Amino acid sequence: MTDLSAVVAGPDVEDLAGELETHDVTVSHIDGAVTGGTLEDAGIDDAALFVLTDTAEATGIAVAKERNPEVRAVVYAAESLPEFARGRSISRSIRSSSRPKSSPTNSSPARESPRRPIAGLVRKSTDR
Questions:
Q1: 34-59 pLDDT per residue, tens
Q2: How far apart are CA 75 and CA 60, in angstroms?
Q3: What domain range is 28 assigned to?
Q4: How many domains does the chain have?
């Protein structure tokens, strides 16, 4: 059993929280705006993972990393991450399978299931 925790911010239509919980990760949710206060309430200071599913809340990545520089930030969304939020602070950006694979704005193939990427993130976070 691990002592990992994660904060999932945004809608969780693909049940990422449920998948993380199958790997013994304790999950907190932020359903509204991602702010310092909502991140604190969700336990970002001790979290190993910050999973963002709503790119409109991309500024939350910087706030999460400011509060916890060791948190692994992951974006799991059909939309592209805004340019200002891209960079070294993101551990992984995973396209949601809700966007068609043939979409001209999708330069990488969509994932069929979050299970494989999530399992890899959990393993990497335990190796810290």
A1: 999 999 999 999 999 999 999 999 99
A2: 11
A3: 5-126
A4: 1
